[in-house]
Amino acid sequence: MKFYDFKARKMNGQEVSMKDYEGKVVLVVNTASKCGFTPQFKGLEELYKEYKDQGLEILGFPCNQFANQDSGSNEEINQFCQLNYGVTFTMFEKIDVNGENAHPLYKFLRKEAKGLLNDKIKWNFTKFLIDSKGNIIKRYAPTVKPEQIKADIEKLLK
Hints:
The chain is an alpha/beta fold. The protein has one domain: Glutaredoxin (3-Layer(aba) Sandwich). About 25% of the residues lie in helices and about 20% in strands. The protein is built from 4 helices and 7 strands, in the order E-E-E-H-E-H-E-H-E-E-H. Strands 5-4-3-6-7 form a 5-stranded mixed sheet. A two-stranded antiparallel sheet has the order 1-2. Helix 1 links the parallel strand 3 and strand 4. The model has no long low-confidence stretch (mean pLDDT about 95).
């Protein structure tokens, strides 16, 4: 399996193939609206605005598996992201990232880029950087701010 073999549903219910992002550098992030890391939406949006014309895509996947920090509906989450952070990058429907109901894309990402102790996602705003050929380049802990990933993104965009 490769990154491009997966599909997911955008907030509007439209199914999207990850193949649509072929040739782009992609940052995949599990998000939450009521988390200490929620302000990272601002940094993610800034990255997206700065690099989208050079081929960066950011894909946000809301998740409610960590301390019930994204309990709202998809519509409420989408409104929150747009109103509070002006998010214009693609947000997908809420998913599970761990456990037997984890989205297949996240099962793949976790297997390809394990964390320190195991493959589980530890918290919201874990990030995966994928190159323009669909290779998982790096996994970033939630504490890594979007602006700290700039140099890695720039390398891949060249």
